Amino acid sequence: MNFKTTPPHHLVLATDLSARCDRALDRALQLSRAWQSSLTLVHALESVQPVLEEPSWRQPQDVALAIQEELEAEVSAMAEDTRNISVRVVRGRPEDVVLKVAEEVEAGLILTGVKRDSAFDKALLGDTVTGLVRHASIPVLVVKKRLRRPYQKIVVATDLSEPSKVALARAVDLFGLDNLVVFHAAFAHFASRMDDRLAYEGELRSDAIQNCRDFISEVAGAEAVDKIGVVVEYGEPDLLLEKYVQDHKVDLVVVSTHGRSGLLGVLLGSIATRILDSVASDVLIVRNSA
C-alpha cells in the first residue's frame, strides 16, 4: 500500500472570534506559510439578536459583512502576504458550516481552537470541536498551545494496526523524519504471575520495540528506522501519553481513528474526549479512509 501524500494545498480554520481561536489562527498562518497552502477562515453565524434599549443606528445591520471585515482586518495585521487567505462568514450551525466550506474548497486540514478554564489554564472541548473530530473526513488539528516555534517534538501514537499506519505516514509527509517518535502502549499479559516480572517485561519490550521498527520500515522505508524514535511502555495508552507529553515537552500528538485496540480502537468514543482533555499538546487526528 502506498501511503505517500503531500502537504494540504488548502487549510480551513474554524473561528468563533473569541480568544480561544487566537492560538489556532497563529498556527494556521505558520503552517500556511510553511506549506505554501491557501487558508480560509470560517465563521458560522447562527442567529442575530436585536440589542434591547439601543437606538436604530446601533442595531445590527449586515452582521455577516461586519464580521468578515473584522476577520480580514485581523489577518491583515498578522500576515505580510494575504493573497492566499480568504474569509467566509456563513449562516448555520458551526459544525455543518465548517464541514461544508472544507468540502467546497477541497481542504486537506481543518484547524480549530479550544476553550480554556481560566482558573486552571486547562483546555476544554466544545460541541463544535467534538463534532468536527467525529465527523470530518479530513484530518483535524486541535490547537491548544501558543505558537512559539514550528512543530519539533512530534509523537505518533500507534497500536501497530493497519489503520494507524495512516497517522505515521501523514506525520512523515507533513513534518519529516527527524522530529518523530512512535509511541506504543503495550500490555504485559500474565506479568503479575511471573516470578521475575521485570525480566519478563524486558523481553516483551524488546519484541515490541522490534515490532515498532518493522512498522516504521513498512510505512516510511528502511532509512526511517534509525531516524524515528520508539517508545514502548506498559499501561493505559491515554494515561501514559499524557505523562509523556508533559515530561518531554511534546508539541504535537498524531493519532488515527479506527485502530484495533486501546486508545486508537475507540478514539471516536470516550477516549477521544479524554485524550483531547488531558494531553497538553496540540493533537492531529487523522481519519483512516480505508
TrEMBL record:
Query: What molecular functions are annotated in GO for this chain?
Result: ATP binding
Question: What Pfam families does the annotation carry?
Answer: Usp
InterPro entries noted in UniProt: Rossmann-like_a/b/a_fold (IPR014729), Universal_stress_UspA (IPR006015), UspA (IPR006016)
Domain UspA spans what residues? 10-144, 151-287
Keywords in UniProt for this one?
Answer: ATP-binding, Nucleotide-binding
- What SUPFAM superfamilies is this protein classified in? Adenine nucleotide alpha hydrolases-like
User: What Gene3D superfamilies does the record point to?
Assistant: HUPs
**Which family does the similarity line name?**
Belongs to the universal stress protein A family.
Name recorded for this polypeptide: Nucleotide-binding universal stress protein, UspA family
Species, as recorded? Methylobacillus rhizosphaerae
